[in-house]
UniProtKB/TrEMBL annotation:
<dbReference type="InterPro" id="IPR029056">
    <property type="entry name" value="Ribokinase-like"/>
</dbReference>
<keyword id="KW-0119">Carbohydrate metabolism</keyword>
<keyword id="KW-0418">Kinase</keyword>
<feature type="domain" description="Carbohydrate kinase PfkB">
    <location>
        <begin position="47"/>
        <end position="369"/>
    </location>
</feature>
<dbReference type="InterPro" id="IPR011877">
    <property type="entry name" value="Ribokinase"/>
</dbReference>
<dbReference type="Pfam" id="PF00294">
    <property type="entry name" value="PfkB"/>
</dbReference>
<keyword id="KW-0547">Nucleotide-binding</keyword>
<keyword id="KW-0460">Magnesium</keyword>
<dbReference type="GO" id="GO:0005524">
    <property type="term" value="F:ATP binding"/>
</dbReference>
<dbReference type="GO" id="GO:0004747">
    <property type="term" value="F:ribokinase activity"/>
</dbReference>
<keyword id="KW-0808">Transferase</keyword>
<feature type="compositionally biased region" description="Polar residues">
    <location>
        <begin position="19"/>
        <end position="34"/>
    </location>
</feature>
<dbReference type="InterPro" id="IPR011611">
    <property type="entry name" value="PfkB_dom"/>
</dbReference>
<dbReference type="GO" id="GO:0006014">
    <property type="term" value="P:D-ribose metabolic process"/>
</dbReference>
<dbReference type="InterPro" id="IPR002139">
    <property type="entry name" value="Ribo/fructo_kinase"/>
</dbReference>
<keyword id="KW-0479">Metal-binding</keyword>
<protein>
    <recommendedName>
        <fullName>Carbohydrate kinase PfkB domain-containing protein</fullName>
    </recommendedName>
</protein>
Amino acid sequence: LLLCVGILPWALEGRPSFPSASSTRKNQPASPQLPSRHVISGSKDQQYLLVVGSVNADTTIGVDRLPRSGETITARTIIQKNAGGAVAGGKGANQAVAAARMIGHRGSARTMIGSRVQFVGQFGGDSHGAMLEHALVSEGVDVSGCGKHLDVCSGQGYVFLEKDGLVSSIVVPGANAAWPSEIGEALEERVRGAAMVLLQREVPEHINEQVAMIAHKASVPILQDVGGEDRPLNDQILPHLNFLAPNLSELKRLVEDEAILPDPQTRPSLDQVIAAARRLQARGARNVLVTMGSQGSVLVQEGLDGKCIHKPCVPAPQVVDETSAGDCYRAAFCVAMMEGQSPEEAMRLASAAGSLAVSKHGAVPSIPDRASCEELLSHCSIDTNENVVEVLRGGALGDGKEGGDDDDKMKPCPLFASRLNSMKDRLDLWDGSDDVL
């Protein structure tokens, strides 16, 4: 009976019917710590991270610069990892592999990793589909819940890599757009049984909305990566997401307010980033996790008294290809939260993962393992103890400087600092020497 009640509105209207933001937020705790039933322990329990998203065959092309409109240029090279030139990618697949490598270091047997990371996506019926499935399975990711479409090509990504490591991409959705209108009972059960769910926006939005509704009803925490297709985000889904995770450009797109965030080519202040996150919270978002490139990352916790946790950037060993850095950051954050770590500790591991991901070519090939992340953190020259460094006061919905009316003033927002990295969304904002990147 409960199942029928939950699905019937979707069948009739084509999309989930969400409760109001006020009803869902009424009894929410201020801390984003996961409930104990969602914490992965060292026991043989089968709790897992469920990644629902895209999988692509990525071809990386080295260029001196991007072509102008109507122009043809010659590439420097094609970055090949196999005879076909394509490697596994796509935000969903990247995050599933990244999570598996983070969990795998904890001593789990190879056969156990699959039970700790499950990926649900759509494979095409071409040769790329077989390669992509093999790439995920070889990492220990459980793909038994994936669909396969014999008459549709696999998702494909064409990545244009400039000399300084900056990337631009064109994605052909292929099978990633071939999801059914309803997710089905099998995926519903996977959602209910998960320790945490990780979503992105390279699959149809109705899939994310249905998964979010089911996870919310089952009290399964969700992190929504905002990256993917540029489309509006349904405000009604926001209260169902424990974490909303944009980068700077995605944050600006979501807020759409020049008074909050300046032009993307201008470095925003931390005040402005926090004010933009608060604007999203006023629309129903809960905890907003923003990656800011060379400025690090900041977690703005829900509630006017929610603290803001800032992690400055740690330089990457070298900058070669930034394709999967954000995916690594978010996957590592989820794994750490599932392990029972604090948000500060989760951001610490995520920062290291994002930093290492820019030092190799390719999406999946560049993803670091847990040992590499911990090794990087062990060599940080700056004390990683958390310290209160600043208290910001400003308008909760203003630009973070002058503030709004007195009734709208933000409560004190303590910022915690440590020598950590986020991802490399805006390497052009780095103001240190290039050799440390």
